[in-house]
Amino acid sequence: MRSNCLEHTHYGVRMKINNKMYNTETSWMEMSTDYVEKGDKVDFKKIERVYQKRNGEHFLFGICHTLDKTSGEILNTYEWITPMTDIDVMNWEKKKDERLFKVLEEKVKKETGKDVTYYRDSWGMLKYKEKEV
Known about the structure:
It is built from one helix and nine strands. It is an alpha+beta fold.
């Protein structure tokens, strides 16, 4: 895959990949998530945004900060743009939901002591049910 470097503009970020321009400034942000992945020596704070171009194509813009485990200080920052297919978008949304469900389930367990499972119903509404023992 031939690509140029990520370029920061006044209002966004853009990158040319395989002769196609991906620009956060001229595209519509559809979905977003921020989360922290725990590592052995460092933690990773990730910010991901799914954009849709005017022609319907999707792409992911991401930022990853490597954080020192003891101080929380940012050690490195990585940014990327990745073209996405419709399947990629659905899989990304599913992973986003799985992270959200895990956080909510842990919060309910901590506050009430109940084991619950979160899910989306056929209308896309967020629901939960108690886990069977």
